[in-house]
Amino acid sequence: MNKKVKIVTDSTTDLSKEMIEELDITVVPLSVTIDDQSYIDGIDITPDEFIEKLVTSDKIPQSSQPSVGSFAEVYDKLGEDGSEILSIHMTAGMSGTFNSAQTASTMTDSHVEVVDSGFISQALSFQVKEAAKMALEGASIHEIQERIKKVRDNSSLYIMVDTLEYLVKGGRIGRGKALVGSLLKIKPVASLADGVYTPVTKVRTHMQMINFFKKQFQEETAGKTVKSIGISHADALDLAKKVRDNLQQLTDLKDIQIRPTTPIISTHTGPGAIALMYYAE
User: I need a surface site. Which of 27, 105, 158, 185 has the fewest CB within 10 A?
Assistant: First the structure.
């Protein structure tokens, strides 16, 4: 008989509290500091409250990955009954969270496997949800790892940033480039290729972005079954709904999740950002 497997992730997963409870997922939160005040992601501050602070603050918010100690504590507790632990995290290309979890896994007596999802937000949650469902059904840790690798390999994420200001603050583009881009009203669209923020195109209007999203979705899901679609936004709910309505014309999948994104991600994108994520097999 397989040992029980428990699923751990971090707070960038953009999962609802109801889903986290229903699937028995343990979330280890990151934290964010803004105006010299630190907040635990998803606990002390809501996405809307954070956006309000973000647009009025002169300082660049700082996000911090969970400490090695906080991961080790969770692993010790979850493994007390002999359960194995699968810890699935945001891409190592954008945070030290995976490395913290990896280090903690060597310091606990529990059996822990740490996975770099290669993604953030709902694209991370595709793997976490699949793993949690399989764990509840009694699958082995090895079976779950094999399955979520397939989910990762068949997932896509595209994000449009509405303002260049926060990419400059985060050091992702230079001021000169941003000045020219802002004058031309350019909105960069990027993918997470191999877990790293990778610019793929530029648009000037939201309609151009929607058309780009539709084109990528059609090309990448052609001949496949669409399993899941998620749209995450930073204070851009109306635009997220517009993206959903346009995608609805291209797929039979009715349940397209719209979620506000975590402050950790909003810090780098600024308000108005939209991310489209999907996986198809």
Answer: 185
